[in-house]
Amino acid sequence: MNLIAELESLVEKLKQNLVQAVSLSDLEELRVSFMGRKGQLAGLMSQLKDLAPEERPAFGQKANEIKNALTDMLDRRIEELKAKKEAESLAAFDPSLPGRMPWQGSLHPITMVMEEICAVLEHLGYDVASGPEVETDFYCFEALNFPHDHPARDMQDTLYVSDGIVMRTHTSPMQVRSMLGSKKPPVAVIAPGKVYRRDSDLTHTPMFHQIEGLLVGKNITFTDLRGTLAYLTRCLFGQQTKVRFRPSFFPFTEPSAEVDVSCIMCNGQGHIKGEPCRVCKTTGWLEILGCGMIDPNVFKHVGFDSECTGFAFGMGVERITMLKYGIGDLRMFFENDLRFLQQFV
Ligand code: DAH
Description:
Layout: H1 3-20, H2 24-35, H3 40-45, H4 56-92, H5 109-123, E1 127-128, E2 134-136, H6 137-140, E3 160-162, E4 165-167, H7 173-182, E5 187-196, E6 207-217, H8 222-237, E7 243-250, E8 253-262, E9 271-272, E10 275-276, E11 285-294, H9 296-302, E12 309-316, H10 317-325, H11 332-335, H12 338-341
Parallel strand pairs: 1-5
Antiparallel strand pairs: 2-4, 3-4, 5-6, 6-12, 7-8, 8-11, 9-10, 11-12
3,4-dihydroxyphenylalanine binds next to strand 8, strand 11 and strand 12.
C-alpha cells in the first residue's frame, strides 16, 4: 500500500474504533494512538523524507486533510458522549424532590439574654460601654478600693497575665473607666462582657459573662437602686418572681447588697418532687447580682467631688439565663451541642 492510501486508511480505522469507545478516557486513548507524538499519523509522516521531492507536497497536503478529519471525528464523538452523559444524569434527577433548607445560624442564648438585659437598661437611658478583658490591677482592684493586702482580693480567684496585669475578674473596672472617661457626673453606663476566674465546677466556669451598671449624679439614693433593679427583674422574669435584697459587702460599694430571685427550677421550694433542688442547693433562692452605693473612696480615685452619689450593680448573665429558661447545668452553655442551642432559635 502506498503512503497516501495508508493515510486514508486511518480514517476508516478510527471510524471502527470509535464505535467501541464508550467513555471519554477511551477517546483519549484513541487520540493518543492516532494523533499523539508517537501515534500512527506521526509514524506515517516520518516517512515523508523517503518520498521523492516531487511527491512530497501532495503527501503533505493529504496528511493535513487526514489530520483534520481525524480531529473532527474525535471531537464529534466527545460531544456525543458528553451529551449522552448529561442526558443520563438529568434522567436520574428527580426535580420534584423538596429542596434542602439553607443552614441558618442563631444567637447563643447568652447573647440573647445579654441583649435583652441591655435593651431594658438602654430604655431607661443607660449607655452601653465596653472595655478590655485584660486589665491592670489599678482598674480591676486598686481604684475599686481593694486594699493591697486586703483579703477581699482573695474573694475572686484571679488569673494573672503578668505582674500587675490580670484577666478581669468582674466588669466593675468599667465603673472606673466610665467615670474617668466622662470626667464629671452624670454618668449612666452599662457594660456587658466576659470575665475570668480560676474556677470550674457545676456552677462556675473559668470564663463567664457579666453586665455592670453604673449611675452617678446628684441625690441618687438606694431607693433608686431598688426601683431600677426591681423593674429590671420584673422585665426579665415576670411580675410573679420574688426578689430579695440581702446585706452584703463589696469593697467598692457602701452599703452593699446581693439580690436573689426565687429559684425557677423548684419555684423557690428548694425541692422538686421530694428531691433536693441541685440548682439552688435547696435554698429556694438564686443570687443574680451584687449592688450598692458607690463607696466615696472610688469617687476619690476618679476625681469626682464628694457631692455626687451613685449606685452600681453587677450581674452574672449565665445565671440569669439559667433562671429564665430553667437550664439545670451551666456547662451546657459552653459545650456547643446543637441539640441544646437549636432550642433557642
Ligand atoms: N463585681 C462584683 C462581682 O463580680 C459584682 C458587683 C457587686 C458589682 C456589687 C457591682 C456592685 O457593681 O455594686 O462579684
